[in-house]
């Protein structure tokens, strides 16, 4: 039996689906009755190579790949996890007679050579931005300052029906952490102190961190609103430095899987780049890096190169063993040739393409008609209690307007003020002095429900939740403080 691992709900859902690709009766080749079936109309497996090629699906979905490799477990009396992370480390418990690494090494304990090739599957098949204004608000910073911008994507994973057993990341919010922006790049401040707080807010809204997004935009000077196309087939799509950064972020956000011996496998963390396309228009491109790329970055085998289109393989040192790395390509005669990846190899061997788009009928989770100021934009936008009071349009009674609360940036600001936390501590001390344990427990859940009520209202948009929030002690305290500010 698989390990008892808590997976994402989308994984549990897709494991229960048959995943078969239904086909209708072929009028030309099917000779049987209407209720019959033959090779021309029988359902296809979700990993059928001909179907994927005909529908221009470059990578099969992760669950289609899992179905493909999991067949071996059907005939085994003992469960063997079919997924395994690449291990590029020197084995420390070698049975050889030599001294342990780094004093000695043999073919048994050294990692196997790596042959780079296109990854068959992708963990995420599609990135869907819930509403176009998410991108518009994000690139507004570049339009105002001419400098680049970075943000984390918060959303959820859903079934993507356009790919057999597919998964899409639905983005509901973009949070912009502290950063130093420049015309030709940016510097992130990592780790950032508010990350845990923002993740808690997202969790209260039923969301999680699903990826990152950043701009690479340069106006072409025509005055027509066009931008320069920097990323194309003759240059690069993701630079070597960006690939290494994406790999580090994917390593930081692994995907839980009961089909892996370690309880985790690869990552669904996506990288989106807002840049110019071949027509000079602003467009979004979405990628992941391969599983072997994340392993090589984790073991410090590769690094960024001065040339953004190639990745550099490091040399072995006295205390660091770097395995042989190869890649294959077709020469001018159309013959597959294997070549050593040292010292450098093309960056596209590490990329996994992900499609993106917007829903035809948007139903966003956050529906505030006026955007609350976005965080960490000094000189452009600012967040304060007076602005919060104006945004909410509160009357003296403290009544809550349903729609205006529904803003992710507003929620993170309210959580970051710590006002609700202070209310909790005051009540905690009062009951603690009475040693009234049951009331102390009730007090703890009162605080939890105050912010939970705010988050619930933001995503439910129901009047009953607004009334519950308005009656809570924490909210009344926040309104009082806003009135005095």
Automatic annotation (TrEMBL):
PANTHER family listed in its UniProt record: NUCLEAR PROTEIN LOCALIZATION 4, NUCLEAR PROTEIN LOCALIZATION PROTEIN 4 HOMOLOG
One protein family per Pfam: NPL4
Q: Which organism is it from?
A: Gigaspora margarita
The uppermost taxa in this organism's lineage are: Eukaryota, Fungi, Fungi incertae sedis, Mucoromycota, Glomeromycotina
The principal localisation class reads cytoplasm
**Per the UniProt entry, what is one GO biological process?**
ubiquitin-dependent protein catabolic process
The name under which this protein is listed is Nuclear protein localization protein 4
Matching InterPro entries, A to Z?
MPN, Npl4, NPL4_C, NPL4_Zn-bd_put
The chain positions of domain MPN read 127-265
Q: How does it sit in the membrane?
A: Peripheral membrane protein
GO cellular component terms listed in the entry, alphabetical order:
nuclear membrane; perinuclear region of cytoplasm
Where is this chain's protein located in or outside the cell?
A: Cytoplasm, Perinuclear region; Nucleus membrane
Query: Which family, according to the similarity comment?
Result: Belongs to the NPL4 family.
- Single Gene Ontology MF annotation: ubiquitin binding
């Amino acid at each position: 039996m698989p390990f008892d691992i808590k997976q994402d709900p989308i994984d549990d859902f897709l494991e229960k689906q048959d995943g078969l690709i239904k086909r209708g009766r072929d009028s030309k080749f099917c000779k049987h009755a209407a209720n019959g079936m033959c090779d021309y109309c029988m359902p296809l497996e979700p990993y059928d190579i001909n179907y994927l090629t005909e529908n221009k699906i470059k990578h099969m979905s992760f669950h289609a790949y899992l179905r493909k490799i999991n067949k071996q477990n059907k005939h085994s009396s003992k469960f063997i996890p079919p997924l395994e992370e690449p291990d590029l480390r020197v084995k420390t418990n070698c049975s050889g007679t030599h001294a342990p690494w780094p004093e000695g090494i043999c073919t048994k304990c050294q990692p196997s050579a790596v042959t780079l090739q296109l990854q068959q599957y992708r963990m995420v098949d599609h990135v869907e931005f819930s509403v176009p204004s998410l991108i518009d608000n994000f690139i507004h910073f570049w339009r105002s300052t001419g400098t680049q911008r970075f943000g984390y994507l918060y959303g959820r994973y859903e079934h993507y029906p356009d790919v057999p057993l597919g998964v899409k990341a639905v983005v509901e919010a973009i949070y912009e952490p502290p950063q130093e922006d420049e015309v030709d790049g940016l510097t992130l401040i990592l780790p950032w102190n508010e990350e845990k707080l923002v993740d808690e807010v997202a969790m209260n809204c039923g969301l999680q961190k699903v990826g990152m997004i950043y701009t690479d935009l340069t106006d072409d000077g025509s005055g027509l609103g066009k931008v320069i196309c920097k990323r194309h087939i003759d240059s690069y799509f993701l630079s070597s430095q960006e690939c290494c950064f994406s790999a580090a972020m994917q390593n930081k956000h692994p995907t839980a899987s009961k089909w892996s011996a370690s309880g985790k496998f690869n990552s669904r963390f996506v990288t989106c780049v807002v840049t110019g396309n071949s027509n000079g228009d602003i467009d979004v491109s979405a990628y992941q890096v391969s599983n072997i790329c994340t392993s090589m970055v984790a073991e410090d085998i590769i690094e960024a190169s001065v040339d953004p289109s190639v990745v550099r393989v490091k040399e072995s040192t006295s205390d660091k063993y770097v395995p042989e790395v190869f890649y294959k390509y077709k020469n001018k005669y159309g013959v597959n040739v294997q070549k050593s990846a040292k010292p450098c190899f093309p960056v596209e061997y590490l990329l996994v393409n992900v499609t993106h788009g917007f829903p035809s009928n948007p139903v966003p989770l956050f529906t505030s008609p006026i955007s609350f100021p976005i965080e960490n934009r000094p000189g452009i936008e600012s967040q304060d209690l007076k602005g919060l009071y104006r945004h909410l349009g509160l009357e003296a009674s403290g009544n809550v307007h349903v729609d205006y609360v529904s803003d992710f940036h507003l929620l993170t600001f309210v959580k970051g003020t710590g006002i609700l936390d202070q209310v909790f501590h005051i009540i905690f001390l009062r009951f603690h002095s009475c040693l009234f344990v049951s009331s102390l427990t009730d007090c703890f859940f009162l605080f939890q429900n105050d912010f939970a009520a705010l988050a619930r209202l933001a995503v439910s948009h129901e009047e009953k939740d607004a009334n519950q929030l308005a009656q809570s002690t924490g909210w009344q305290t926040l309104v009082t403080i806003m009135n005095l500010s």
